[in-house]
Amino acid sequence: MPEPRPRPPKASPGNGVLLTDLYELTMLQAYFDEGLDGTAAFELFMRTLPPGRNFLLAAGLEQVLDYLAQLRFTASELAWLRRTKRFTPAFLESLAGLRFTGDVDAMPEGTAFFPDEPILRITAPLREAQLVESRVMNLLHYETLVASKAARCALAAGDRLLVDFGLRRAHGAEAALLSARASHLAGFTGTATVEAGRRWGIPIFGTMAHSYVQVHADESQAFERFAMAQRGNATLLIDTYDTERAAHRVVALAPRLAAQGIAIRGVRLDSGDLAEHARRVRAILDAGGLTGVTIFASGNLDEFRLAELRASGAPIDGYGVGTRMNTSADAPYFDCAYKLQEYDGEPRRKRSEGKATWPGRKQVWRAYDADGRFAGDTLSLADEPQAGEPLLVPFVRSGAAARARTTLAESRDLARRQMARLPEPLRSLQAATPPYPVVVTEGLRKLAARIDART
Predict the structure, then answer these.
(1) Is the pLDDT of residue 3 over 90?
(2) SS3 content of the chain, % helix, strand, coil (to 5)
(3) Is CATH 3.20.20.70 correct for 27-131+335-454?
């Protein structure tokens, strides 16, 4: 008889230690063989801004802290690694007790930042700091990507309601959840993703689908039945057939529902010329006495379209923004790096063409003008104090929390305050000229030159 096929391993949870690149483990094996495990400092930063962007918004730190707190190899993970025959028994045995025992310094979530500025530093025994590279980058990069795009949407929309509609086209379940979180942090009011509401307390919003209207033989009947099922909270989708005719049907239906104590909260537009439809629908609703019924719009929106609709004076009260925000469609990735800056007390510097790094543990200092707006940042060595506010703060020391964990509401409030302090040119959807100034100190430049001279 043929041998039975081996069962595939069960899927690891999102924070499983094997959610990493193979080279992290092969390097750990080599470090183990050499007896290398001195203290290493790695920093995560973005090398450049995408075209047309003026700032980025840090997000994802809370997920990183959760990951580090849970860092360990399970018995089943070690057993699987043994079966690969890539690693020595002594090395795998050493991993059984591995925990994160290092330090984490970071910019709090919701902080605006700029190229070359580290948003996170991990200082720990070499194998710990190396092992976490891939997952730490994965978490910080994605949430920062979405938060930075969502912040631009929030700036473009002004005081309008913004709701994350991104679940169905997100790149997987974790992306859908984390984009709901990151967009709320960056200024979105809420999300349509129910699990994000349960997990983080994000307000949840929902309307109806075209299929609900199509299931009914009559559009007015569909509106009435839905309103009866969602008393006082019904937003009716009115563009399944003829948008303006549907608006008239809403006006005709409203008195009958009001007699039963049921109010129509709003109508939703999801196709066509949103500005023109909104103007026509607003006129129909107002003429019918429904001045309190709001107009909500969705459909391939991003910050550029939101700015256009706002500039046009379209009477739209809120927006559902999905695909283009949670995939950051115009800039779907950042040039993100997690690099060794110090090992065993000695600063290190990468000099690769186009990818050189500044050596040593660093700090970012922010100065403000007389109006409290950002005036410029300074990148220095960590032990080289400068004027301004230090942006990297301690979150973990020797594996234990060094400060109370930040709530999502607190991070959202910080992001709001940061956006309010952006200089006007940085709030634009076009590239600011000149770009925001980030000055590198003479001490950091001299250290880089000394390292270059000996390597």
Answers:
(1) no
(2) 40, 20, 40
(3) no
